[in-house]
Design goal:
Blueprint: E1 3-5, H1 8-16, E2 21-23, E3 30-34, H2 38-48, E4 57-59, H3 75-84, E5 89-94, H4 101-104, E6 109-113, H5 118-126, E7 131-132, H6 147-154, E8 160-162, E9 174-179, E10 182-187, H7 193-200, E11 204-205, E12 229-231, H8 234-240, E13 246-250, E14 262-265, H9 272-288, E15 293-296, H10 305-316
Parallel strand pairs: 1-8, 2-8, 4-6, 5-9, 10-11, 12-15, 13-14, 13-15
Antiparallel strand pairs: 2-3, 3-7, 4-7, 5-6, 9-10
Helix pairs in contact: 1-5
The structure holds threonylcarbamoyladenylate and magnesium ion.
C-alpha cells in the first residue's frame, strides 16, 4: 500500500526523481509523473495497464505557464481558459517540441489543464515541469475521488498519495478543442455545456461512441464496474432481474415496493452537483456490495446530468 499524506515537498521530491504519485484535483485523483521525463511517463501506462495509443493530459499551474508547452492562440479557447482556469476544463492545443510524443501518443495536439486544487497548484508551482496525469485508476475502471480509492487499486504501484480530501466535483474535466474551425466538445465532464456555450456560443458535440474512437479515452466501454450495470426504467429492469440480488443507483424519489434492494441515491433533492460528487463512489460501492446486478436510471440531460449520463452509458456497455 502507498503512504497517504499531505507533504507537498516530499511529493515534489518523488516527482523530481521520476517517480509516480497520486495527486488530488477538483475533478478526480490523478496518477502523476514529470511530463518531460519519457521514462516516468511510460511508467504511468504500465501502472494503469493503459494502451499507449491513449494520450495523457498535462497539468500546469497557470495560464501564463502554457506558452512553453503549447499554443493557446485561438481566441475562443483563450477566452474559455481565462474564465474557467483553474477548473474542470481541458483544452486540446497544438503542442510544442518539448512535449514528448509518448504524452500525446504521437498526436500533434496536447491536452492541457490548470486544475483547481490548492495542494496541486502549490505543487505545480514548486516544480519546473508539467505533470502528465490520467485519472488514478486501472484502465477502463471508475475514476477515484478519494485517496482510499487510489490505494485500493494502485497502492502497490506507487509510493505516495497526496491527500487533498474528497474531490469537490467528482467528474473528469470537460475536453474542448477546435476541429473544422469549430469549438468542439470531445468529452463531457465537470464543466457543463451550458457554461461553455454562454462564453463561445453553440459548440459541436464530437463525443465518440465507437469501440475504436479518435480520442481513445472515449472508448464505448469505460468507467466500468465488474458487475453488470443496466440503465433504463426501474420497473422493467427490476422485473427482468427479479431472481437476482439488486443494487439500485437512483436520483430523487425512491418508490420501490421491495426493500431488499441496496439503494444508492445520487441526490434525494435532485441536485446534479451532488449527484456528480456521488456517482463514482456509488458505482464503486455497488460493485463492492453483495448484489449481482446494478440498476440505474438516466438523469435529466442538462447541466452535469449530461456527463453523468455519458459515464453511466459507458459503465453499462459490455
Ligand atoms: O479531470 C481530468 O481530466 C482528470 C484529472 C486527473 O485531471 N484526468 C483525466 O485523464 O481524466 P484521463 O487520462 O483519464 O482522460 C484523458 C482523456 C482521455 O480520454 C484521452 O484520450 C483524452 O483525454 N486526450 C488526452 N490527450 C489527448 C489528445 N492529444 N487528443 C485527443 N484526446 C486526448
Ligand atoms: Mg480516465
Amino acid at each position: 500500500m502507498a503512504e497517504i499524506g499531505k507533504n507537498i515537498d516530499f511529493t515534489a521530491d518523488l516527482l523530481f526523481k521520476g517517480k509516480l504519485v497520486a495527486i488530488p484535483t477538483e475533478t478526480v485523483y490523478g496518477l502523476a509523473a514529470n511530463a518531460l521525463n519519457e521514462k516516468a511517463v511510460l511508467s504511468i501506462f504500465v501502472a494503469k495497464d493503459r494502451p499507449f495509443f491513449d494520450p495523457l493530459i498535462i497539468h500546469l499551474p497557470s495560464i501564463e505557464s502554457i506558452d512553453k508547452y503549447a499554443d493557446l492562440k485561438d481566441v475562443r479557447l483563450q477566452k474559455l481558459a481565462k474564465i474557467f482556469w483553474p477548473g474542470p476544463l481541458t483544452l486540446l492545443l497544438p503542442k510544442k517540441e518539448i512535449i514528448p510524443d509518448v504524452v500525446t501518443s504521437g498526436l500533434e495536439q496536447v491536452a492541457v489543464r490548470v486544475p483547481n486544487h490548492p495542494f496541486t497548484l502549490e505543487l505545480l508551482k514548486k516544480i519546473n515541469f508539467p505533470l502528465a496525469a490520467p485519472s488514478a485508476n486501472p484502465f477502463g475502471y471508475v475514476s477515484p475521488t478519494e485517496p482510499i480509492h487510489v490505494n485500493k487499486q494502485l497502492g502497490d504501484k506507487i509510493e505516495y498519495i497526496l491527500d487533498g480530501g474528497i474531490c469537490s466535483i467528482g467528474l473528469e474535466s470537460t475536453i474542448i478543442g477546435i476541429e473544422d474551425d469549430k469549438v468542439c466538445v470531445f468529452r463531457l465532464g465537470g464543466l457543463a455545456l451550458e457554461e461553455i456555450e454562454n462564453v463561445v456560443g453553440r459548440v459541436e458535440l464530437r463525443i465518440n461512441d465507437s469501440s475504436n474512437p479518435k480520442a481513445p479515452g472515449q472508448l464505448k466501454s469505460h468507467y466500468a464496474p465488474k458487475k453488470p450495470l443496466y440503465i433504463g426504467n426501474f420497473d422493467d429492469l427490476i422485473k427482468l432481474n427479479s431472481s437476482k440480488k439488486i443494487a439500485i443507483i437512483c436520483f430523487g424519489e425512491e418508490n420501490f415496493s421491495n426493500n431488499n434492494y441496496t439503494i444508492f441515491n445520487l441526490s434525494k433533492t435532485k441536485n446534479l452537483q451532488e449527484a456528480a460528487l456521488n456517482l463514482f463512489k456509488y458505482i464503486r460501492l455497488a460493485d463492492e456490495s453483495d448484489a449481482d446486478v446494478v440498476l440505474c436510471e438516466k438523469l435529466p440531460n442538462e447541466g452535469l446530468g449530461r456527463a453523468i449520463n455519458d459515464r453511466l452509458k459507458r459503465a453499462s456497455a459490455v
